[in-house]
Amino acid sequence: MRTHTVQGELWRALTADGDNREQLDRLSALLRRIIREELTERQRDAFLLYVGQGLRQKEIAGMWGVHPSVVCRHIRRAEAHLRRWTEKLSDIRGNAFGDD
Q1: CB within 8 A of 10, min separation 6: which ones?
Q2: Taking CA 21 as the corner, what is the angle to CA 36 and CA 29, rounded to the nearest 5 degrees?
Q3: Contact 8, 92 (CB under 8 A)
Q4: Are 80 and 73 in contact (CB under 8 A)?
Q5: What does the pLDDT look like over 18-29, one tens digit per residue?
Q6: How far apart are the C-alpha atoms of 15 and 68, rounded to whole Å?
Q7: How far apart are CA 35 and CA 45, in angstroms?
């Protein structure tokens, strides 16, 4: 259900009139929403600590009291999920603008 709503927002963000900055702002807000709503709590936390704050996986593992492989798994799953959304974005963009 949420996925359908987010796809609709992707479509609106890509096809709305406005300058590139406005479009970038809409896409940025949508990416934050995808991270917030579509990732599990652990995936989101691991991804944001790793990418957003620049912590090493070993540091995150120490904070959480888990093996670094657990953190690595959460980050990989978050990245895979975001990659799927990126592919959907690319598909929507292609349909909106007639790209092949």
Answers
A1: 30, 88, 89, 92
A2: 10
A3: no
A4: no
A5: 667 777 787 788
A6: 41
A7: 10
Separation between Cα atoms, residue 94 and residue 100, nearest integer Å: 6
pTM value is: 0.70
Domain ranges of the chain: 2-97
Q: What is the per-residue burial (b if ≥16 Cβ within 10 Å, else e) of 42-81?
A: bbbbbbebbeeeebebeebbeebeeeeebbbbbbebbeeb
pLDDT, tens digit (0-9, with 9 covering 90-100), for 37-95: 999 999 999 999 999 999 999 999 999 999 999 999 999 999 999 888 888 777 766 65
Contact 67, 61 (CB under 8 A): yes
Place of tokens 């657990």: 70
Q: What is the CATH number of domain 2-97?
A: 1.10.10.10
